[in-house]
Amino acid sequence: MRNLTGLLFAGGLGFMLLAIASGIDFGNPPMRVGEAIQAAAPQEVGAANIVTSVVLGYRGIDTLGELAILFAAASAAGLVLGRRHTTNGTQTKGGFVLFHGGALVFPFLLTIGFYIIFHGHLTPGGGFQGGVILAAAFFLPLLARPGARLHHSVLSIIEAFAGACFILIGLAALAEGQAFLQPMLNQDTLGALISAGTLPLLYIAVGLKVGAELASLLSHLAQTESEQ
Amino acid sequence: MIPGVTLELILYVTALGLVIIGLAGVVLSSHLFRMVLALVIAEAGANLMLVLSGYRWDAVAPILLQRAEQPAMVDPVPQAMVLTAIVIGVGIQALAVSLLIRIRQRYTTLKRREVAEKMDAEIAASAGIRRDISQDAPLGERPLKPVPIHTAQSPGGDA
Question: How far apart are CA B68 and CA B74, in angstroms?
């Protein structure tokens, strides 16, 4: 009975969504906001990547809210998992390939992570994507050596510093008499590495914050799991 | 290609299919970890649908190029929203998985029915009440003796 109602629910929802989707003219979206942003963003924000202009320029305060949600989720997970006990004796070490491969890949992961963060206003990518790669770089050694631990105090300092920088950049715009998080500074040439004013700085802050948050979250999960 | 099956139909059916598979998994599965996985699938489908809604024929990614004429670009707004949705999804999944770890540590299982059973027993024990208390007779005796499920005949026959 429960299965039947579940299937009915899923089927009905699918029918409803298909009916809505069939009304959309695929391939020719109305793009009322999109057109306006595409026309105005190169002059107003000066970032070659228009998605970055939307994420940090037009919806900057949304991104701040998103960071707050991520922070809340990470701290809630830390709260649920609690403080770890150090029982390193029983944990199995990673094999030869994982051990040395992790050490080999680590610098490349760092490089590509920072590259993606620094070029967030020019190419696909940005602070969130690069931050995840940074977190992976620091999580890989933990897989190889379960006994090793990340310094949670250092991570939380990085995270707090990056979050404070994001808000301070927003407040600086406010002090200049503009709106909160409005892009400032010289826009420079479109497409140059140093361009688009404060946007790359904001993305660096986002990248460091996301990286530190995810790294501490992953190490929390891994260590709780290896206790069992 | 089969006539009548266009690219747009395939894309929409894929995205919708992911949403439906995910939601059906959440409703139907009896294992808590599978529920989380089903939620992830549903989220992927929803993100795919959002990106599809901004798709445009013969358009490029919304990145300005150093070129004389700029080709048409797809809608950047849904892409920015999906970026937000993915990041929040990761946070939710991490929270769900950490809750699952705690549940498994406490009840040694992740099967929905067994976890609910053990949780009920624990709540009843800590509240100091009998566990098999019925909604039909919350305070006193039951009006009728409960019939075991597998020997039950046609319901309502003796009532």
Answer: 19
